[in-house]
Fold:
Amino acid sequence: MNITIRPATIDDMPSVLEIVNHEILHSTAIWDYDIRTLEQQIIILKEKQEKKFPFIVAEKDNKIVGFGTYGSFRFKVGYKFTVEHSVYVHKDFHGNGIGKLLLLELITLAKTQKLHTMIGVIDSENESSITFHEKFGFKTVGIIKESGFKFDRWLDSVFMQLLLE
Ligand SMILES: CC(C)(COP(=O)(O)OP(=O)(O)OC[C@H]1O[C@@H](n2cnc3c(N)ncnc32)[C@H](O)[C@@H]1OP(=O)(O)O)[C@@H](O)C(=O)NCCC(=O)NCCS
Structure:
């Protein structure tokens, strides 16, 4: 599969929105209840760009099939070498190595930016994402029980960490 990984542009945001809104409506991978608007998604992209955080997309045959990004983990200045990332692949393209390309690129960019550690905050029911992250050396460092609520049930968040240096 011929996949290009590149920085996202505003023109990619409708495709990103399609991917993320599917997960909002149908999964606990993301703990939003309401779908995002294009305007909200563009604001998210612009904020990442202003803060010099990456927002990358995976493109196949002129179609956006996944995206990845990271941003501040927490807002106090002492957390400045830690980022929280996310990777999403279009539901029709899972299992083709696209998530891998996106996460490897985010790890490379984080190292280039001299960051120290990356954190993924993952719903404990999302076994695919937990296994996926383990493949890249992320370790489960904590589980916060019943920290989320969606689809009428409590959800646990699994914190997975990769030390970069
Ligand atoms: C998790 C996700 C990003 C993985 O992306 P993907 O493109 O399907 O994964 P890849 O094909 O690149 O797989 C990379 C590795 O992870 C493993 N993996 C991926 N999905 C897996 C699954 N469901 N079960 C077991 N292993 C899995 C693959 O076996 C592969 O390992 P290998 O390199 O040893 O063969 C994708 O399933 C997704 O977007 N899910 C919905 C959104 C989501 O949950 N995002 C993460 C939020 S924290």
The domain at 4-116 is CATH 3.40.630.30 (Aminopeptidase). The CA atoms of residues 16 and 33 lie 17 Å apart. The first helix runs from residue 13 to 26.
